[in-house]
Specification:
- With 166 residues, the protein is an alpha+beta fold.
- The protein has one domain: Aminopeptidase (3-Layer(aba) Sandwich).
- It is 31% helix and 33% strand.
- Strand 2 and strand 3 form a beta hairpin.
- Helix 1 packs antiparallel against helix 2 and helix 1 packs across helix 3.
Length: 166
């Protein structure tokens, strides 16, 4: 986490991501997912499949056409989120392990909720990793079921489907 000259954490700001942020977002995704290794919810094969992100060019195209948000502490990117307005779904919220448990994820989720309300959505859904369900419950999401997420490699991982009325 970025700190000021006195070692205090810098305030986190959230902005719309731009195509040139693609490499940063890919690195954040990989770091956040690899940070799950050893927690016991997923095995190494699942973590490796989950950590793969699209290449920078493909990710830049996605940023151009989808709603990505980037969290920054000073000049350092510390997390990102993606809202799929058409599907009323939060597709991703990831925070670099160095910035976890400091309010970054909460800030990103609140920014996603604001964007959803601006888009006049009345409900959001998401598929939470097993370790993240408690985090989302604290933010008002409720569990609605269990799902299996299948990666392009064919590897699957259990997730928890959640929803929040806006």
């Amino acid at each position: 986490m970025a700190t000021d000259a006195h070692g205090e954490p810098l305030a986190v700001t959230v902005r719309s991501a731009r195509p040139h942020d693609a490499s940063t977002i890919a690195a954040l995704h990989e770091a956040a997912v690899h940070g799950e290794r050893g927690r016991g919810d997923y095995d190494d094969r699942q973590i490796d499949a989950w950590a793969r992100s699209p290449g920078p060019a493909d990710l830049a195209d996605r940023i151009r056409t989808r709603h990505f948000l980037l969290a920054e502490a000073g000049a350092a990117a510390v997390g990102y989120a993606r809202l799929d307005v058409d599907a009323s779904t939060v597709r991703s919220v990831y925070v670099n392990p160095s910035g976890q448990r400091r309010g970054t994820g909460r800030r990103l989720v609140h920014a996603v909720l604001d964007a959803a309300r601006d888009a006049r959505l009345d409900r959001l859904e998401l598929d939470a990793s097993l370790n993240a369900a408690g985090f989302y419950e604290k933010l008002g999401f409720r569990q609605t079921g269990q799902v299996e997420h299948r990666f392009r490699s064919g590897v699957t991982m259990p997730c928890i489907r959640m929803a929040k009325e806006l």
